[in-house]
Specification:
Elements: H1 2-7, H2 30-33, H3 35-47, H4 55-81, H5 87-100, H6 104-136, E1 142-147, E2 150-155, E3 164-167, E4 177-181, E5 184-187, H7 189-192, E6 198-200, E7 205-206, E8 211-212, E9 217-221, H8 229-243, H9 250-277, H10 281-295, H11 298-317, E10 320-322, H12 325-331, E11 336-340, H13 341-345, E12 346-357, H14 363-374, H15 380-392, E13 401-407, E14 411-416, E15 419-424, H16 426-432, H17 439-450, E16 454-460, E17 463-474, H18 478-487, E18 492-496, H19 501-511, E19 515-517, H20 522-536, E20 539-543, H21 549-554, E21 557-561, H22 567-572, E22 575-577, H23 584-615, H24 624-643
Parallel strand pairs: 11-18, 11-20, 18-19, 20-21, 21-22
Antiparallel strand pairs: 1-2, 1-3, 3-9, 4-7, 4-9, 5-6, 5-8, 10-22, 12-17, 13-14, 14-15, 15-16, 16-17
Helix pairs in contact: 3-4, 3-6, 4-5, 4-6, 5-6, 5-9, 5-10, 6-8, 6-11, 9-10, 10-24, 11-23, 11-24, 12-23, 14-15, 23-24
Keywords: ATP-binding, Cadmium, Cell membrane, Ion transport, Membrane, Metal-binding, Nucleotide-binding, Phosphoprotein, Translocase, Transmembrane, Transmembrane helix, Transport
Enzyme class: translocase
Domain P-type ATPase A: 139-238
């Protein structure tokens, strides 16, 4: 490894073993990382205080151009020599043209705007790298293991397949494995996206990074740390980011054709008349230079970043963080949008949806007793019942609870007001109630479960009293947003979830999506996004969880829910809805389409003005002054047109 590092010393390469943790370098302060951009901007501001034609102003503008645009020129000139006509080559031609006509301020503004777009792009790449680091931190680095009758805590890299891992209540599970003793409810939403904790008993599989509930479990390790489900998700994200074709901005695609054409036309104007028609070399070289100046794409180059920066600023003001102009452009070309279910189309928090009385009793009094018991539990479903009682306003906190016990994996029991209550799964109450649960109640339970709800049964002194249904509720805005997307021309809206088919169908029909895919693991979500891209081209993925990260990374545009989203989802995505508001999605598409339209308008207008000026070459009337006027006028108009994006509102 030392020899490899020495071989890569020229490129300052550092190497780490495949399963080692690369050290995270200390991040430089913003001012230090962007010193050239800040200095260049300061020089432009100072230069604008002087007369634009004064020596001081010209020197300051020239300094700003070289400090802010050094790397741009270096790659731009290389690209021109290689005949690779991209945005950087176009920028270099624009600045050379600005220098020829003495428009130093215009050249400096071109450089600073491009430098700002570069900073945005770098920020986006840094966030992509941070997403991998945050994934690595999800599973704990150590675990309590029993070997040869002794218990000790060791690093996960030292754990071997077959080791027995002891997982205490409330702890994160460090390794994938099978439960060999104990039972508990495990929150595995990070891995599978299921909204309700999964009951785990002997023989069930558990995943690294999931959170144990109230029960003590012993888990036999089945996979090494580098083979765990969370490790697979990390690899999927890395591969998706590597495979994702680099997006090209519209002006980049345009520059491929425009730049060589304008250089060729200028060259032909300079040499064809003297060679073929005995024209004066001095006159036609001047005309060729004037053509190059007219073709100088300052207006084109300025109009795009002005439009993009204005649109990104407007989006941020409305609670949408866009990590680069390309992502904003691509939002307007979407043909399909895939949604995660939990926390995206739904609120991500279980709520009581039904309280069905089965015996003649007062609903508020029964709810108070149930809430008093559930208040002693740490289960997420118990929290839903307590929230319901608080919302309704029933007094439950002052009630005395006796002989409280949690029946792990089944439910709980305790005495309230002299009666012994049992609350838990239908299977648990079927054992408690005299004669089991009657068929009428079983039918009602089945109907509620078919709607995607988790049903708990309440019994007291071996009598059945009530059914409580809990579900992750659909956001009020989901159906409206999906309908609006279809109105905007999105061909397909799909819900992707790790939940079971019954729950998925219930939520999907309420949200109004055109397609539903259930029981999906992270790699299956990723595969589905790739198949969508083959069928529809531009595809967005909207998600909030770790399990969505591979799909977010692979989609044309990854969109994270900002309020509810995990750090991993926010860092992997290209766009974040910071207010956790799905209604911002149609607004962002509308803003994107308006941005693309304005960029195209600016390009069409700039070319129109240049063509009119070029027609003056035929009678030989084109002068540098006309060229300067055409370029400056076009630059001013397209800039004002770009600023119209500030008027796009979130209605």
């Amino acid at each position: 490894m030392e020899e490899l590092e020495r071989a890569g010393a020229f490129e300052n390469l550092r190497l780490f073993p495949d399963n080692a943790e690369a050290p995270v370098g200390k991040k430089k302060p913003f001012w230090q990382e962007n010193a050239n951009l800040l200095l260049s901007g300061a020089m432009i501001i100072v230069a604008s205080l002087y007369d634009e034609k004064s020596v001081t102003a010209i020197l300051l503008f020239l300094g700003a151009i070289f400090i802010g645009g050094y790397t741009l020129f270096k790659s731009g000139i290389k690209n021109l020599l290689r005949l690779d006509f991209d945005m950087r080559a176009l920028m270099t031609v624009a600045i050379i043209g600005a220098a020829i006509i003495g428009e130093w301020s215009e050249g400096a503004v071109v450089v600073i705007l491009f430098a700002i777009s570069e900073v945005l792009e770098r920020y986006s790449m840094d966030k992509a790298r941070a997403s991998i680091r945050s994934l690595m931190d999800i599973a704990p680095k150590e675990a309590l293991v029993r070997r040869n009758g002794r218990e000790f805590t060791i690093h996960v890299k030292e754990i071997e397949v077959g080791d027995i891992m002891i997982v205490k209540p409330g702890e994160k599970i460090a390794m994938d494995g099978d439960v060999t003793a104990g039972s508990s409810a495990v929150n595995q939403s990070a891995i599978t996206g299921e909204s309700v904790p999964a009951e785990k008993n002997v023989g069930n599989e558990v995943f690294a990074g999931s959170i144990n509930g109230e029960g003590l479990m012993e888990v036999k390790v089945t996979k090494l740390v580098e083979d765990s489900t969370i490790a697979k998700i990390i690899h999927l994200v890395e591969e998706a980011q590597a495979e994702k074709a680099p997006s090209q901005a519209f002006v980049d695609r345009f520059a491929k054709y425009y730049t060589p054409i304008i250089i060729l036309v200028a060259f032909l104007v300079a040499i064809v008349p003297p060679l073929l028609f005995n024209g004066d070399w001095n006159e036609w070289i001047y005309q060729g230079l004037a053509v190059l100046v007219v073709g100088c794409p300052c207006a084109l180059v300025i109009s795009t970043p002005v439009s993009i920066v204005t649109a990104i600023g407007n989006a941020a003001k409305n609670g949408v963080l866009v990590k680069g102009g390309v992502h904003l452009e691509e939002m307007g070309m979407l043909k399909a949008v895939a949604f995660d279910k939990t926390g995206t189309l739904t609120k991500g928090v279980p709520e009581v949806t039904d309280f069905v009385l089965l015996a003649g009793t007062d609903e508020r009094k029964l709810l108070a007793k149930v809430a008093a018991l559930e208040n002693k539990s740490q289960h997420p479903l118990a929290a839903a019942i307590v929230r319901k009682a608080e919302t309704v306003g029933v007094p439950f906190r002052q009630k005395q609870i006796e002989a409280f016990a949690s029946v792990t994996g089944k439910g709980l029991k305790g005495a309230v007001d002299g009666a012994t209550f049992h609350i838990g799964s239908p299977a648990y109450l079927n054992e408690i109630v005299d004669g089991g649960i009657p068929s009428s109640a079983s039918d009602k339970i089945a109907a509620l479960q078919a709607e995607g709800k988790t049903v708990m049964v309440v019994g007291a002194d071996a009598n059945l009293l009530a059914l409580i249904a809990v579900a992750d509720e659909v956001r009020e805005s989901s159906r409206e947003v999906v309908a609006r997307l279809h109105e905007l021309g999105v061909e397909k809206t799909i819900m992707l979830t790790g939940d079971n088919r019954g729950t998925a169908q219930a939520i999907g029909s309420l949200a109004g999506v055109s397609d539903i895919q259930s029981d999906l693991l992270p790699e299956e979500k990723l595969a589905f996004i790739k198949s969508l891209q083959k069928d529809h081209g531009k595809v967005a993925m909207v998600g909030d969880g770790i399990n969505d990260a591979p799909a977010l990374a692979a989609a044309t545009v990854g969109i994270a829910m900002g309020g509810a989203g995990t750090d991993t989802a926010l860092e992997t995505a290209d766009i974040a809805l910071m207010a956790d508001d799905l209604k911002k999605l149609p607004f962002t598409i509308k803003l994107s389409r308006k941005t693309l339209a304005i960029i195209k308008q600016n390009i069409a207008f700039s070319i129109g003005v240049k063509l009119l000026a070029l027609l003056l070459v035929i009678p030989g009337w084109l002068t540098l002054w006309i060229a300067i006027f055409a370029d400056m006028g076009a630059t001013l108009i397209v800039t004002l047109n770009g600023l119209r994006l500030l008027r796009v509102k979130d209605k």
